[in-house]
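Subject: Sanity check before I submit

Could someone independently write out the structure tokens for this chain? I want to compare against mine line by line before I put it in a report. The sequence has 427 residues.
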Amino acid sequence: MSYTVETLNGCTKKLLFNFETIDLTTEIKNAMVRKQRTVSLKGFRAGKAPLAVVEQMFGPQMEHEALNQFVQSQFFDAVEKEKMRVVGYPSFENMKYNKGKSVSFDAMVEVFPDVTLQNYSKYSFKKDSAVVTDEDVEALKKNFLSSKAEMVEVTDANRTIDKGLFAVINFEGEKENGERPENMKATEYLLEIGTGSFIPGFEEGICGMKKGEKRTLNLEFPKEYQVPELQGAKVKFFVELVEIKEKKFPEFKDELVKEFGFETVADFLKKNRENLVQQKEKTTLQKLHQEILDKFVADNKFDVPNTLIHQQEDHLKEELRGTLKSQGFNDAMMEEYFHKWHGDLHTKAEFQVRSALILDALAKKYSIEVGDAEIETKYAEMATATGMDIEQIRKFYNSNEKAKNNISFAVREEKTFEALAKDIKIS
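---
Independent answer below. Compare away.
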């Protein structure tokens, strides 16, 4: 064997290669022939230059190419022989080549770690109840009726603005230095109280105001606010409540719900209560699964490949780009944002990678497999949840390998949590 393997940590290997004798004659000749077929030299037709001429002009280059080919082939042969689960690309170091005689080099490569989990048989978790309340149903009814609701003015002079009502306001912001930027003022702005669409403290600050009342709010912009010059800035907002409005909803009758695709009010309530239960069940499961992962990550320490963390960071950034772009960020602002929050992104990416490796270890322990029938079940669930035709869903995922793999991973994760639930306490 012409190499040795050093373990630098749980996910990094160093392969040290040493060939005291080396003959690259065959490799160099093959490189020359490949070059001869493609090279175009003065006085010769393309691909017809004599091999001796090609060798004279490109000899050192072809020898370097042959050596590179040799190094890579030896590395991948060793990886296969050692049954390494390699992550990313290797880095080659300490190359020493004695022309035509010997060569030595080192290859550093990251591998998937062997994850050995601590005993979790005594783990205990509490799952929230997926109870649907009458308030949940009323909120859903209002959501359906929202498009048919009428916005009307509140005429009671003693009525104060509060959550659920709409405030028509004039406002202007003033920075500590006395500046009043244009992007901090508006006239007859319609704001629904309780949506949290303004900076923290603004909506709370105007609650209790009556029509015609004026108020000064002393606030502070969030440190992660999207406009860099306003991040963490202390400001005063001068607010005037011009008008109070509220939504008047039509009566919920059979004739109305038919427009939403239901036969009767009873049919609407039955089907939507069932949907709400499913949604709450999904939410409570997600919360439970997150708590389980938090516990596993905290209790199981192992080395994680930096390559996987960097890949996940890139994935998180791509997800964020769409959101930031919709908020008016340009490329320069996005890069500044990513630089500022690099630590948080790195921490989140590392947690997600650790979680994935732990779930993979659990899936292997429980011999979790995902078959075509389970993928079809997932398609049916998606069709029910979205109202789309199942054939459209099937066609999309079957023609998109990456998307289908994501579905398969999601099903595998669900089955893993189901198997795990039998070995831990969930009340």
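---
OP: Matches mine. For the report I'm noting this point. The longest strand covers residues 234-248.
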